Amino acid sequence: MLPVTSMPWQQAWQAALYGPGGLYRQPAGPAGHFATSTQGAPGLGPVLAGALVRWMREEGLTTFVDVGCGRGELLAHVHALDPAMRCIGLDVVPRPEDLPGPVEWLEAPGGPDLPASLGGLEDALVVANEWLDVVPCPVAEVDVAGVLREVLVDPSDGSEGLGQELQGPDLHWCQRFWPPADASPGDRVEVGRARDEAWEALLGRLVSGIAVAVDYGHVRGARPAAGTLTGFRAGHHVVPVPDGSCDITAHVAMDSLPHDELVDQRSALRRLGVDGSRRPGYELARADPTAYLRALGEASAAAALTARGGLGDFLWAVTRVRR
């Protein structure tokens, strides 16, 4: 028998990350438990920011929006590279005290919900970097009869059981994007409809420009049979327990998102001049040791951002919005 405290994963997940006292509202924030492309090894943020600023200049864009921006790390790097550029960040916490003054800040409700004040964005690059993987969604599992059922979880200890048969729009999403017809009992699905709707809502705030979702992801034909739901605590994988003590994430079905182009981060960044295969020549070390060390650090960061089996495998879903 299921504990009386069991509830759908989507509901427990939302409360654990974004509810009162939720993980993302705690002082340490997400950086206390895992490192993103902007918070990882030294130098990653400036290199990524440089690529995004070059992209904006190529496209004639003047506003940068960072969705789910943590404590504003990437925003600060973009502002430092081009102080004339309008920068807007949104996250669930109040504005960080050390954020540069001109950078705008919007406090978001959390999860898929966007602040009402975000809208009318013109000539903007909107980046959702590792946002959708922490937008809670239903988790479903194939039972012994081959029926896809919603997974319930006890927030106190993470114990699970199967609930009602998946129906309606969530089942239709699975049939289209993650069909369970050939699945075996115990196989799992993270139902991405909630992520698709969150992404569509964000696109609706953009009048003109480019929106890009950057995330851990997979595509049809390569869905993980066991799903990807996991937890992180202090930089380590842990069993996901939705009690606010760990980050909870699941990879994104990136091909179900509305998009014009789907490309891996390695390819996207190389187009923007970030090539991790290049190293500064030793002649620079002899002529200007300081410049050599700076160039070496940038090359190392570029290599990390484009690495196979690492950040380079992120997927970018790119959508262009024209007036």
Automatic annotation (TrEMBL):
InterPro entries: NDUFAF7, NDUFAF7_sf, SAM-dependent_MTases_sf. The keyword Transferase applies. Keywords: Methyltransferase, Transferase. Gene3D superfamilies: 3.40.50.12710. The keyword Transferase applies. GO terms for biological process: methylation. One of its GO terms (molecular function) is methyltransferase activity. It holds the Pfam family Methyltransf_28. It comes from the Bacteria. This is SAM-dependent MidA family methyltransferase. It comes from Oryzihumus leptocrescens.
